[in-house]
leucine--tRNA ligase
Amino acid sequence: MGSTMNTSKPVALESTTRRDTLVDIEKRYQEIWAGEKHFEIDAPTDKEEPYGTSVEKLHEDYPKWYSSMAYPYMNGVLHAGHAFTYSKADFATGFERLRGKRALFPLGFHCTGMPILASADKLKREIEMFGDDFSGAPSKEEEEKEMARDAKQKATNAHHEDVTKFTAKKSKVAQKTGRGKFQYEIMEQLGVPRDEIKLFADPKHWLEYFPPLVKTHVTKFGGRVDWRRSMITTDANPYYDSFVGWQMRRLKELGKIKFGKRYTIYSVKDGQPCMDHDRQSGEGVLPQEYTGIKIRVTEFTKEALDFFQKQKFDLSGKKVFLVAATLRPETMYGQTCCFVSRKINYGLFDAGNGEYFVCTKRSFKNMSYQDITPKRGEYQETLSINGGLLVGSKIHAPLTSIDTLRVLPMETILESKGTGVVTCVPSDSPDDFVTTKDLYNKPEYYGIDRDWVVKDPISIVNTSKYGDKCAEYLVNELKIHSPKDANQLTKAKELAYKEGYYNGTLLKGKYVGEKVEVAKPKVKNDLVAANEAVVYSEPESAVMSRSGDECIVSLEDQWYLDYGEKNWKEQALACLEKMNTFNSETNNAFEGVFDWLKNWAVSRTYGLGSRIPWDPKYLVESLSDSTVYQAYYTICHFLHSDTYGQEPGLLNISADQMTDQVWDYVFCRKDEVESDIPKENLQKMRREFEYFYPLDESISGKDLIPNHLTFYIYTNVALFKPRFWPTGIRCNGHLMLNNSKMSKSTGNFRTLAQLVEKFGADASRVAMADAGDSMEDANFDESNANAAILRLYNLKEWCETMNKEKDSLRSGEYNFFDKAFNNEMDLLINETYEHYALTHYKLALKSGFFDYHYARDYYRDVSVLYGGMHRDVVFKYVETQAIMLSPVTPHFAEYLYREILGHKESIHDARWPTPEKPVSREITAELEYVRNLQRSIREAEIQALKKKKKGKASDVDKSKDVKLTLFVAGNSPEWQEKYVEVVRKLFEQSNLDDMKEVKQHIEERDMKKVMPFVSILKKELETSTPEEVFNRELPFDEVQTVKAGFAVLVKAPAQVKVVEITAVSFKSGDKTGKDVKTGEEVEIPNTKSIQNAVPGQPGVYIKNIK
């Protein structure tokens, strides 16, 4: 278990000369590429393949690749996290082009939903209050005082916050930008000049401002985007509006869209839903769903009973429940008590069927509009009782293993959040753990009996980071001593909840072993089904209507998508089963979502977007108009030539002409169509769709699995034939910056534009590739981007030098090191291909750039001793390095390809290098042998120069000349040959990991030397085939390799001067051997190194020359 991660500081560039040189190359080629239209990719024309050709033949004759990322929302520019996700799609597109495919990568702009309009409306109000230059706004000091008060309030509310979602006191824009109470301040943080901010009070201006900016930033990043296919969403684009209308109508016809009740922010006073534009405060606030745990009171305190008697309330025949609102129903297995506040007067409410709820009046008011209570809108309490009278009462809580618990006091409970009743899970809630500890240590102070307190938490969730008692771990780690340590408790709560939710595994109950994020909805559903809980919602934070009414959450009639419906779900799961999700974790996450996802509201009354065609008072919500936009990409360049759908496209079709029949025909749903669009144009559009669909790879952050990506699968299988169903979804983790979470409030934040400005495009892309490829959070390390500048620049300089001096490079026959480097290049080319194909870009960068660079350096250095480098080998390296780097560093690769190598065509039209012949295992082994022998010589040198004990001199005086002798064993010792066979048999019997079994086959006198030998063989079996490990014969002539390598081996020692080198071949056990140079007989020294020599591992002997 660990708690912290090493962080690295932002890099300050001491000099920008090298970077500027690379940036000049980037700018030059971006302009060239735009002119040459390299990224405008089309389906085969009817001349290349006649219309009516089968999709299978189309793809066989003209292979394709279609990649997409979740299109970004246009309330700001792209940040580094967006760029990380974007890079995955871009790298894939570059690689697939090298495989000879028509690789398409479009990018559109999402504008649907509430955030833009809410922010625009907020600006309108700020202009009314402060003027259009905002000069009347409060000072920074006044604002920070209020923010401090808000922070204190937030710390108090910490126990009730859902850490798996934003708290929505601010809009999405505000959440991403850190400090900024006012919208105009947020706009300034986005880089908008103060005098332009007033323009954003018109929501249309957002749509006009950010898309071109994002396009510019992506282009400067080296984007391989076909911008002809770009678009904005909403009814501002009439073509996309038509597309969404078709999608909605078809889903309704298929029975996928239904009408029913959904949770909505609601004003009782106004008698209607209170959407953002109706609110005096609370813009962006959404319903927060809780599980209301029904904790039955089995025995009230005497004080409570006396109070009931005084109030003439008869308990007989009634079940009384304390209702505790929780965001973590899966932790109810660990309840140890229930908390109330002595500062709150609770209501006792008739919940029907002989049940009574104890909670705050505010929360029961919400319940009365959610089909929980006997009659809608009735929330009058039967009586009011102070929380102090309940302290000490005996209770029974669902799921916990302890039969009888107590009601205990908690001072920090707020009446304005949740139900005012808090269930206690001290194993996983830092607040609960600290409060429980405080109650146990100070029972007199709290007016309770110590034996009411369950001292030891119940372990219910395990995480690799914090163990099975994460609350206790974090409280100790953060040195929290009191329930009053609000700020530290807030931090601990966030760490505990996020780690538990995303990485926790249940230890108790029906779903033992399941991930918390998977089990949570299952436990909730079980509790509700057993009548041990209710689903309860309230606003995430206070919402006031313009009429001055504090809003609640009500169940209101809405249109919704019936996700989870049996047949539809089976189709979606069938699609998932055939899909490449690139790792099992992504696949498991999808399966978990399919288990719990049910209906989803498709309608909204406020925001930007397209109207529900049959009920235009409603808008299509933002996650429902963004499920099959990849199909729209395939044809939108035919429809409009601009991003906004205002300028006609290549086929001069109007939006009105795009009827439902036309959409059906284009998307291969129907083969007949009545339209005034010429048949040839309809066929062109259909060809584009059926050629590029299905989408080969949808790229997104893992946080979109529970919604956008799952909706994407559902909608594709509903609307399209199985042959067009998605074939790949690749999810990545979140991106950290310099090993810390990105946050504007801390200053640890970068936009894409800032990264490119600081490091240039290609160096930034190298750092993105190096950041990571798994579902775990990745890390953009600025030091890697800075190092990439130096590495690329130095490679550029070396290639230019080679080009200038190519006539002086050696030609003719290859020597051993020419062959070896050529062979190693082929090996790394093949490795890199496999890494790219698996989308392992970090590994591709390692083998195709870092290891390739090391191999070149070794060849360059040893070639000095053998007449210099060979011209053909050098320029093979330059060309293959350029091609292998091109997916990651396209500008730099293009420079090498065109300006160093002299190619007329672009590297975007190059093909992945194919080795002329298979990689030679013999040459690979020979080269590795020479390198290992160099290391062995250096190690032997260190040992020879070590001073001996008791002040005795070392074996070698480094001030004098030495002779280096390599003793090459012709065979292995008999004992090794014997035990190789033993290990082989144990391996074939799968008993090699059973050490007891291994030792039974080893003689006692051999144990000391054999066991290390067995360990070596086991380690070799991890990286090599059994045939390679157990066949002890070398695939090359060891003596000849040593002789050929004398020139490089003599240079291996770092401190002594070798003036003579030779090698002696001998048989294991012999006392003499043969000098391979002179043929003379040589006595074998009795040293450990030489006695342990085996084929492939010579003994090294260094001795001063007398």
Q: What stands out?
A: The longest strand covers residues 287-299. The longest helix spans residues 921-945. Residues 945 and 956 are 6 Å apart (CA to CA). Confidence is low (pLDDT under 50) at residues 1-5, 154-160, 163-179.
